[in-house]
Design a protein that fits this description.
The protein contains 18 helices and 4 strands. The protein is mostly helical.
């Protein structure tokens, strides 16, 4: 960074740091005073901001910690922390569903909403911003993301089977958690590139010695975890309460509003990478997050439900939840096919965004299934008509064939390095 820009960057990083610390404070103080009879609307706002700030702090603490802990441990911690805000909200709903079955729908709503926002908004935005910033027609993704894409294909293929039993079963949990464990194990044995710190994490690294950096990493993590702990339940319950009070579909509030608080920091960081001509890193982080959500997060829900209900049963699915799961699976399949050659065009990003936005304005079951069919038809169409390289890359990923992958899309990858 040029010397003249360093003071400006320092002030910017300091501003983000102070903002991240300040966002949880109003709700943490209100919670310490037992809420003071705050209306549900204000609870949703304050607790949502607390989760937003906590998500920023979790990201910074883990980035800083990578300087001091083994890469393999960092991978595991980052995988767990990446889904912690969604995990807290979703597990609350799954736990409550063990006592009140009506809450089962909210657990599915939050999970499917978080997954679809991640792709329909997050992936699309990073590609479009990266292409605009670089002036290129497409974004080239680093080959190391083949690992995440492979496990995402496997998890997505399995997800189509989940609704067939009328529940997310404990067997589904076992399969998805095994997939997550295999993913973490494979990542531990993979390439471990040096990570350049950005934003407040870089500020902490510059301003403090080794001891100070480690103290800040621990403090940020503990404060963020506490903020999520005291915010997740009030935030989730306030959304349900608002829906019932104002005759708004609670399912939709939980599905789209709740994930925005927990996903926003990840989106902002990824988009900032894209603006700095490092779009491959930004999209890579979001692909990793999708794998974590589609395995660890989904797999944990039936376990929480079973423990809470005191019965060896899975999380039940009604007709609407089944439709939402199929739609989420179909979107995931379409997206991973687009990324399989590690070259994503602006047109691909527009498809992802347009199909996502289109489904927000319609809530009927027939429309949901219509979008599911559109995603599946588009998936088949892209595989059939976009050339042999994409088919070879996709099926090589599905088979786990490194030899086939090394011979696919080499020219495009070289252009993007």
């Amino acid at each position: 960074m040029p010397q003249a820009n360093r003071p400006l960057a320092r002030r910017r990083d300091l501003l983000w740091f102070v903002l991240g610390l300040a966002l949880p404070l109003p709700w943490v103080l209100a919670e310490a005073l037992h809420g003071l009879g705050i209306p549900a609307e204000v609870v949703a706002l304050l607790a949502g901001l607390a989760i937003l700030g906590a998500a920023f702090m979790l990201a910074w603490s883990c980035e800083v910690a990578e300087r001091d802990i083994p890469q393999s441990l960092a991978l595991l911690v980052l995988a767990l922390v990446g889904v912690l805000p969604e995990y807290a909200i979703d597990l609350h709903f799954a736990w409550r569903a063990g006592v009140d079955p009506s809450y089962a729908a909210y657990a599915t709503a939050n999970m499917t909403g978080a997954n679809r926002i991640l792709i329909g908004f997050g992936w699309a935005a990073v590609v479009l911003v990266a292409c605009h910033s670089s002036g290129a027609k497409y974004l080239v993704i680093h080959p190391r993301q083949n690992l995440e894409l492979r496990f995402l294909i496997w998890a997505t293929l399995y997800s189509f089977l989940i609704p067939l039993g009328g529940e997310i079963s404990l067997f589904d949990s076992a399969v998805l958690l095994i997939l997550f464990g295999c993913y973490v194990r494979a990542a531990m044995g993979g390439e471990s590139p040096e990570v350049d710190l950005e934003g407040p994490a870089a500020l902490i690294d510059r301003e403090f010695n080794d001891l100070g950096r480690r103290v800040w990493a621990v403090v940020l993590f503990i404060f963020a975890a506490y903020a999520i702990w005291v915010s997740a339940e009030p935030f989730a319950e306030s959304l349900v309460s608002m829906g019932r009070r104002y005759d708004i579909d609670e399912f939709l509030l939980v599905q789209w509003v709740a994930p925005l608080a927990s996903e926003s920091p990840e989106f902002i960081v990824a988009i900032m990478f894209a603006m700095r001509l490092r779009g491959s890193i930004g999209i890579g982080a979001l692909v990793s997050s999708k794998v974590n959500q589609w395995t660890l997060l989904v797999g944990a829900l039936p376990i929480a439900f079973a423990i809470s209900s005191g019965a060896f049963v899975g999380l039940p699915l009604d007709e609407r939840q089944t439709e939402e799961l199929y739609l989420t699976s179909a979107q995931s399949m379409f997206a991973v096919i687009l990324l399989s050659t590690l070259k994503v065009t602006r047109t691909h990003a527009v498809w992802l965004a347009a199909l996502f936005v289109g489904q927000l304005f319609f809530t009927s079951g027939s429309v949901r299934m219509g979008f599911t069919v559109m995603y599946l038809v588009a998936s088949v169409g892209v595989l059939a008509f976009s050339g042999p390289d994409r088919r070879r890359a996709f099926f090589a990923l599905a088979r786990g064939s490194e030899a086939d992958l090394s011979n696919t899309g080499g020219a495009s990858r070289t252009a993007g390095e």
